[in-house]
Design goal:
single chain, about 725 residues, alpha+beta, 36 strands, about 25% strand, Putative glycogen debranching enzyme N-terminal domain-containing protein, GDE_N_bis
């Protein structure tokens, strides 16, 4: 069997403006190899665009992004017979992800240049998913059309048009030709436009339309460490290139997961991006929450007058006061959406919950009620793959609660509250109840109760942290909107804390560490992985305070120290798996690479927990790595130990840009100012890093309650709020 081609984007110049992108090598030529081409809606509209001037390819001089959506390529060509050692002709290509390219030939020589310009074109109209798997179809035959070429096949068609029109079109060879005469000191240009005539079936997501503003403010960052400003600026530029909207909701913007490999909505990634950019406003969070709520699993409702599953199945879900309250409470907080079922209320219930009753009757739709779907994610060598639905469903509650604290309008929060209640119901349904599983801990939402009972899955460390945070922040929302169940959720979170500290902590010679997962009581998975950083991400609570975490103070101290040892910190950030593991692989997705988001979460979480020395070590590693990636951090890179004068090794399958890494770069810098608002209570606190790891830091153009907010942090870590909404009371730092 011949080896399968392996397309790589690690060294490609990739322009992105969702739902379009373009990729080539640094010479700008599209050669139809690997990922090369223009894409739209997941279809490669053009695979080849090879330019020759006088029969020669320009000598490549430079190829670089000028923004996330655009690139510039410069090459030179010597005029035949020219004795001057300096090249007389330069060729500039300005490319935009949307399918536009301008080619300009400049003559800086002393005599006219008379030579042909030929551009060879072709396409397979292939799907991005096939190309990512290394499959490449033959080019389709071209057809001449006015000012260009057209290709049709597989129910799609694409065109390339040129202005000015070519002097000759060779359809069989797919060549457009111009006979140029460029005088000394003059230039000649042609504009090319690539278009997809027939997008994929249905109404695919669109990009940010004309007139739709960016869903965040554009901050100004000034710091003694100049890398910070460049990092934030380019991260936001990258996020802008990933913005999508459902076709029927053009103002509800959310981010694609990343380009080129996951160029669509992954709910968990989009919610992380929305959460990490909350200091720049709540519009991205609102759009993302609405988009993910529309995709949330809803249990089929019985016909009017029919018995509910709990009424027909013997076990009465509404027997407890907590469960009975929401069902009897009339209309939901959103208004006009009807009464919430017990599962929708999200209150912790026993085995007689609607989810469990639905499973007993074989109603899978009922059992999956409230789950926000997501694809499988590689679990690394120690654990099976996990469904991102778990992370997305829990994160939905967190993003809604924190957006509310940052000033998302109450009516918008109320509209989304039923979806958050359903997500809490899904959390309760995913708590393992034994006898063979990790009793009392949260397992995978992507499996039905029958599947979890037949094959108990692991309770992952990070999932317990996310579930604990969602329970506490969900309780905050339930209290604020006069919904029942808050007390039960806080009690459940307290029980989870106690169980976690007893069963997840592994004592060793270094003092101890949390297990990566628990398979059953007394069966921890001892691997040390970067996912433990989620234990420091405890979530924003009332009056600018943070919620309690799953670790006690001593456990947190030991973990903080462990994170900055060479076992996990490679010098560029945190490895996903300890270098001491026999399964460590510096290029492994979950067995050794550095994932930017997790290192950024570690930095902010360590600062919040008071472990600033450790945070500063990890911060410096990420900042130094970013400089080697032109301050556009990819999704991940190799976790090889840092060596002087050696840059970090790119990962061939990394998305760049990626929503989570770009948002994490923003979060990395903005979180150091420690802005913690609680708009519903009329307060905002600042808790900056006292060590001022970036030196003096000034942030203007932030948003709290939709209004401008500016803060300045001195070199000794003292914060001064310079601009804030007048109705907010400032808490001392």
């Amino acid at each position: 069997m011949p080896p399968r081609p392996q397309p790589s984007a690690a060294h490609d110049v990739l322009c992105v403006n969702a739902p379009a992108m373009a990729a080539s090598g640094p010479d700008g030529q599209l050669r139809g190899q690997g990922l090369h081409g223009f894409f739209r809606h997941g279809v490669r509209t053009l695979a080849r665009m090879e330019l020759r001037l006088g029969g020669m390819e320009p000598l490549p001089l430079q190829g670089t992004l000028t923004s996330a959506a655009a690139a510039r390529f410069v090459g030179s060509v010597r005029v035949p017979g020219d004795l001057d050692p300096d090249p007389a002709l330069t060729v500039e290509r300005l490319r935009h992800a949307d399918g536009a390219e301008t080619v300009t030939v400049r003559n800086t020589g002393g005599r006219p240049a008379r030579l042909p310009l030929e551009i060879a074109l072709g396409t397979d109209l292939g799907q991005l998913t096939d190309i990512a798997a290394g499959r490449r179809s033959a080019d389709l035959p071209g057809q001449v059309q006015p000012a260009g070429l057209r290709w049709a096949g597989q129910g799609r068609a694409a065109t390339v048009s040129a202005r000015p029109s070519p002097h000759a079109v060779l359809a069989g060879a797919g060549v457009l030709r111009w006979d140029l005469e460029v005088q000394p000191g003059a230039r000649w240009s042609v504009d090319l436009r690539v278009e997809l005539e027939s997008p994929s079936a249905g109404r695919p997501p669109t990009g940010r339309g004309q007139g739709v503003p960016l869903p965040w403010s554009e901050p100004e960052v000034r710091a003694d460490d100049r890398r910070a400003a460049r990092l934030v600026d380019r991260a936001l530029d990258s996020l802008g290139g990933l913005l999508l909207a459902d076709a029927d909701r053009p103002t509800d913007l959310y981010t694609a997961s990343g380009a080129p490999w996951r160029f669509g909505l992954t709910a968990a990634d989009a919610l992380w991006a929305a959460r990490m950019t909350l200091p720049l406003g709540t519009r991205l969070a609102a759009g993302t929450l609405r988009a993910t709520a529309r995709r949330q699993h809803l249990a089929p409702q019985p016909p009017a007058g029919a018995a509910r599953p709990s009424e027909a199945g013997g076990s009465d879900a509404s027997s407890s006061p907590a469960a009975a309250g929401p069902a009897a409470g009339g209309s939901s907080a959103a208004g006009g959406t009807g009464a919430a079922s017990p599962a929708q209320s999200g209150t912790p219930q026993g085995t007689g919950s609607p989810a469990a009753a639905g499973a007993e009757s074989g109603a899978t739709g009922q059992a999956m009620d409230g789950v926000i779907p997501g694809p499988l994610r590689h679990g690394g060598p120690e654990l099976p793959a996990s469904c991102t639905a778990t992370e997305a469903t829990l994160l939905f509650v967190t993003v809604l609660a924190e957006a509310w604290r940052w000033g998302m309008p109450r009516a918008e929060v109320a509209e989304l509250l039923p979806a958050a209640e359903r997500a809490l119901g899904a959390l309760r349904a995913a708590v393992a109840e034994g006898p063979d599983g990790p009793v009392g801990f949260v397992t995978d939402f992507g499996r039905t109760p029958e599947e979890r009972a037949a094959r108990p899955g692991p309770a992952r460390c990070e999932v317990q942290a996310q579930a604990h945070r969602a329970a506490l922040q969900g309780a905050d929302l339930l209290d604020a909107f006069d919904r029942p169940g808050a007390g039960e959720w806080r009690a459940w979170a307290a029980e989870l804390r106690e169980r976690f500290r007893e069963q997840f902590w592994i004592d060793d010679l270094s003092g101890g560490r949390p297990a990566a997962a628990l398979l059953a009581p007394d069966r921890p998975v001892p691997a040390l992985a970067s996912t433990v950083v989620h234990l420091f991400d405890v979530g924003l609570g009332a009056e600018g305070e943070l919620h309690e975490g799953l670790l006690d103070r001593e456990q947190a101290r030991l973990l903080a120290q462990r994170l900055v040892t060479p076992e996990l910190d490679c010098g560029w950030g945190l490895r996903t798996l300890s270098a001491k593991s026999p399964r460590f692989n510096p290029l492994g997705h979950r067995s050794g690479v550095v994932r930017v988001q997790e290192t950024a979460l570690a930095v902010s979480g360590l600062v919040d927990a008071g472990f600033e020395r450790e945070a500063e070590i990890l911060l410096e590693g990420l900042l130094e790595a970013s400089a080697h990636f032109d301050h556009r951090l990819p999704e991940m890179y190799a976790g090889e130990q840092k060596v002087a004068d050696c840059p970090p090794v790119p990962h061939p399958a990394a998305c760049r840009p990626a929503a989570m890494s770009a948002a994490a770069a923003v979060h990395l810098v903005l979180s150091l100012a420690g802005v913690r608002p609680d708009v519903p209570s009329g307060r905002v606190a600042t808790r900056p890093a006292s060590t001022a790891p970036l030196g003096a830091l000034e942030l203007t153009g932030l948003r709290v309650a939709g209004e401008p907010f500016s803060v300045r942090v001195s070199r000794i870590g003292v914060a001064v709020v310079e601009e804030a909404p007048s109705f907010l009371q400032l808490a001392a730092s």
